[in-house]
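Table 4 source record.
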Amino acid sequence: MSALKAGDDFPEGVSFTYVPYNPEQSAVTACGMPVKYDASKEFKEKKVVLVSVPGAFTPTCQNTHVQGYIEKLPQLKAAGVDEVLFISYNDAWVMSAWGKANGVKGEIIFASDDGAPFSSSLGWTLGARTARYAILVDHGKVVYAEKEPAKDVGVSGVDAVLAKL
């Protein structure tokens, strides 16, 4: 597979792992059990924003990228987005802790592209890490897919995605 572009079908066989939010395990240090998120199946039935970052808790990812999506989640929902997923090469427990540390209680899914198989299949990695990119999928069709050319969030940030909705 190569990089996705608008008009492509979202590929088959793509899955991530995540720890579903559970109020009884809401502490950052509480560890739930990761489950499979079948992105190929889920994306056929929804309008989804998939955001990839190089790492949970890293400066740009934490201070700019995730905060923008948290703050503008109501605007995304109003524009018809059913789900927002953040992925990284970090494991599902780290991604779960990152969501909890940001006060997210299931409104955004924080999942793992553990080992970066999906990102690698697109050629969108930074060494072993997932690259910074955003993909907007509407019922199985890619509407927008852009990888950041630099260390900012000009094409993968929430404002770039909102402009495509």
